[in-house]
Amino acid sequence: MSKRLGFVSNMERCVGCNACVIACKSYHGLEPDMKRRKVRDLDDNLVGSPIRAYLSTSCQHCEDPSCMKACPTSAYSKREDGIVLHNRKVCIGCKMCLWACPYEAPTFNTVTKKMDKCDMCRERLDQGEQPICVACCPMEALKIVDMDTLDEATLVKDVDGFPVSSITNPNLRMKMPQSVKQVRR
User: Fold this and answer.
1) Checking CA distances to 149, which of 5, 8, 73, 132 falls within 20 to 30 Å?
2) Phi and psi dihedrals of 16, rounded to 5?
């Protein structure tokens, strides 16, 4: 049985540096206005006390991908390991996938007039390497994991201000930051 791959984004470690975003843009030669990965600045009161929190996201490689359902040309497919792929050759750039995705993962390429999205650097994974965003994170805040064997005891599926996981069952788990401990009395 093959693995079911997903991302873990550790908000305790992420400092919002955008190294993952820049590495992805550079590695894939993306147009300046395109991003396959985003670093979101979350509510300062996410854990009940003031704290800076960032969430690095890309395509969630959902169990029930809304992009795939919405695409009129069947430009989306899903590998056995759970990676959701986009075929630019079949894409007509209608943006239906973008509008359907609650995570706004697909992005429109203004040059090719086609959609684009994260494919978990499948060519790197197929060669036994980590996706470029994972490999270049200086804080080791991103990981690729097998969702079937992941110990989710310290992880969450949902974060305030982010679409609820029940919509598409994304293969993303997050480690929440700890609340700030009182240092003065």
Assistant:
1) 132
2) 75, 25
CA dihedral sign, ordered 153, 60, 170, 177: positive
| Distance of alpha carbon 121 from alpha carbon 30, whole angstroms | 13
Containing 70, the helix (H) or strand (E) segment is helix 66-70
pLDDT digits (tens, 9 = 90+) for 4-37: 999 999 998 999 999 999 999 999 999 999 999 9
Three-state secondary structure call for residue 114 = strand
* C-alpha span between 159 and 176 (Å, rounded): 8
The pTM of this model reads 0.89
Closest CA relative to residue 37, chosen from 110, 113, 135: 135
- Whether the CA torsion 8, 180, 53, 103 is positive or negative: it is positive
Encoded amino acid at 108, one letter: F
